[in-house]
């Protein structure tokens, strides 16, 4: 699959590297290609020669699947830069959380309760098939879940389009996830985004991000 | 231990029955004893002859541990009826969630993000040692956790007083819980209360409340 990964941070790099390793054609999207190249991108790119870099719009244009790995605060802006036409009809795997660091750590959420970032993105891009997933665990576990309890823990997919959720669930299974729970429509993203306050406190308690929840049933 | 369980609903009855079964001296507190007796209480009481019934204040006065098993919307009122003096110095196990059913199902939360019901109760009753716990699972699993995966799932304690958390954790262990995670101070109740939106969607998806999360680490 041709995959555009929007965002050059830890999450974007983790997803891009893993997807390329699995044989996908991956282009990372960034707001400013020159600025990204001028940062620590070169080192990372040297060890990931099959991953391309382009502006958000160029990366998105030729893709079949788009991954939103930007920060929650910047997601709508990055997706606008990617372009509504370029995103139309495509599956968008949205990993971002609407974290607000304005009052320090732990952050609060800037969207919650009767709305979610996933829903905001879906409303802003009605022709795009948004699937919220992977926002409930750390980047390294998103892409290498088997390192923890041989993958015996859960992830979720939330979205209005069954085929889009199937596409994302298959990618997650390729990553190594063994328990992908389809929560239902995109409004269920509220629940997975609102898991963050508990996740952040567990992170503080356990001193590592290498943990996840399992839905025991 | 002499335990007051405030609230005559499913949660209150489950906790009262289990605590009495374990040999504790249990009194259920209610707003209106006559009204409770006039309802379906008599049937339940007949099969739980060791559990007493009294007004909130009378139940609380003689107790060593108080359990808030009232609805989130009514908790502060019920605790005010229990009496600040009667609650002073005592451990209060707070199970309530601030659910708002004003817009139908699933409910939203009326307190969240930078506050929690647990914190509100702690602020309203500063001499009481509030421990938030058991608000993340269904009543029957609170009290009989071994029925699911032989108890291989997690519960949390949140509170400012280490001794109070120890008391509650011991009670939870007596109930059969095998993984009681001390999240830290009472502000961590935000995380466990904000788990409810995910819990409610999983409940809808799974068609049963007999599930729980396990923190895999």
From TrEMBL, chains A, B:
Query: Which InterPro entries does the record associate with it?
Result: NAD(P)-bd_dom_sf, P5C_Rdtase_cat_N, STEAP_metalloreductase
Lineage: superkingdom: Bacteria
Boundaries of every Pyrroline-5-carboxylate reductase catalytic N-terminal domain copy: 2-98
- Taxonomic path: Bacteria, Bacillati, Actinomycetota, Actinomycetes, Micromonosporales
Sequence intervals crossing the membrane: none
> What GO molecular function annotations does the UniProt record carry, in alphabetical order?
oxidoreductase activity
Organism of origin is Micromonospora olivasterospora
For this UniProt record, give its keywords in alphabetical order, as a comma-separated list: Oxidoreductase
Q: Which SUPFAM superfamilies match?
A: NAD(P)-binding Rossmann-fold domains
Q: Under which name does UniProt file this protein?
A: Pyrroline-5-carboxylate reductase catalytic N-terminal domain-containing protein
